[in-house]
Amino acid sequence: MNTSTPSPRTPCIHPSILNADFANLARELSRISTADAVHVDVMDNHFVPNLTLGLPVVESLRKATDLPMDIHLMIEDPDQWAPQYAELGCESVTFHAEAAKAPVRLARELHARGTKAAMALKPATGIDQYLDMLGELDMVLLMTVEPGFGGQTFLDLVLPKIRRARRAVDDLGGEIAIQIDGGVNAETILRAAEAGADTFVAGSAVYSAEDPDAAIADLRGLLAD
Ligand code: DX5
Ligand code: ZN
Questions:
Q1: Which residues in the chain show pLDDT less than 50?
Q2: C-beta 35 within 6 A of ligand 1
């Protein structure tokens, strides 16, 4: 076990375009130019009861922005589809533990395509059974709402899981990012940060603001205080 405390990662804000204007996505990307990455929610109406966008739209988005693309796949059969998102040159591809048939193999396939590999857990999915494979990942995403829709209320019941993930990541040297997604706003972000999250997806909190870049700065300011 590593006995020294790893230095904390610089917090990152990844706005989700789920609540952006889908008829003007290129313009909407230009409104979050200060983000650390853009979070793209891919939903297939099977893994979650909602349908958003797929490979062709992600390919076009990648050409429309210099921001790193953080792809969150809420789809069945990520073993088949996730590598294809990696091949588009996305910075990271996140698949759901509940949907992946062979998560270790899938993480390695993503790495082989030059993409960061991340695994997401729904709020009721425990992390303990996945601790042994954390070292295969660049990021773990702990959903703080049930996946499928923006604008839901942050689930405080996930905070103990964030703390457990923090301890496990620190034992491995602290390099793995801990992302949270769902209900992140000025009121909830500090609770998640104190529990150990370092990468924050924010959908409605950023895109419901008149100036999304200013909303990003406000969230960063809270984390810096
Ligand atoms: C929900 C998505 C989220 C969503 C977050 O399933 O994965 O990325 O856009 O939206 P807010 O921040 O509004 O909860
Ligand atoms: Zn998401």
A1: 1
A2: no
